[in-house]
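Please go through this protein, sequence plus structure tokens, and consider how the sequence yields the tokens. Keep your notes short.
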Amino acid sequence: MGPINTSVPERASRTYRELLGWPVATGHRYRPRSGCTCGERDCLTPGAHPRREVAVLTGDEVALGGALIATTKYFDALVMPKKTGLATLAAVGEAVVVPCVVDDTRAVLLVRAATGQHALENGVLPTVELRTGPTGWIALPPSHRTRWDTPPWHDRTGHPILLPHGQEIRRHLVEALCPGRHTDTVTGVPGPVLGGFPEYCVYCERLVERTEETLLMLGFSASGSRPSLYAHPECPKPRKPVPKRVRRA
């Protein structure tokens, strides 16, 4: 499979639908001399927003120059200032692939559907907007001024990537917004970022949220050498082996 090209609307639309399973609809179009076809003189996203309410977008036809709009039904979108988004990607590094769409001022990070809230501390982060569910939307390249910083497919193979869980980028996003600090979700007290990895259940090794309910042991080392441990409440504790009795001679 050759390189994927999203500069042509028809090809891009086919890629989103057939490769990723994301239905798209045509949004407003940008006109160099007249601005956005929505008619708003001060349109904040010219040529890169829906024509009407996202909930009723059903068309698959692509108008020449029109935006490509996808609902956030198949993924969650974290919309933030461009500087914050790129700093988050830099902090994540190669550990996790996070698809990202950028324009002149904003970055949109894509995570697994219904997990975006786990990327936000206490459900909220300043300057970060969570778009989720069938009523949310984002503009995909080649909508006006949009491009993929990190596409949702592997460059070499062209195969789609598995979207990361929101919690996998949580600490990196907080660090990008507040360098050197994070809010402990158990105590609510700002403190240093320890490590840069998500929390995993000590029993099943799946991702687990840092809450009072999931806390097993609170770390006591100031250096972070003894981190806190977490587990899902529903995960059964492993049974301890019963020592065999030693026969006396």
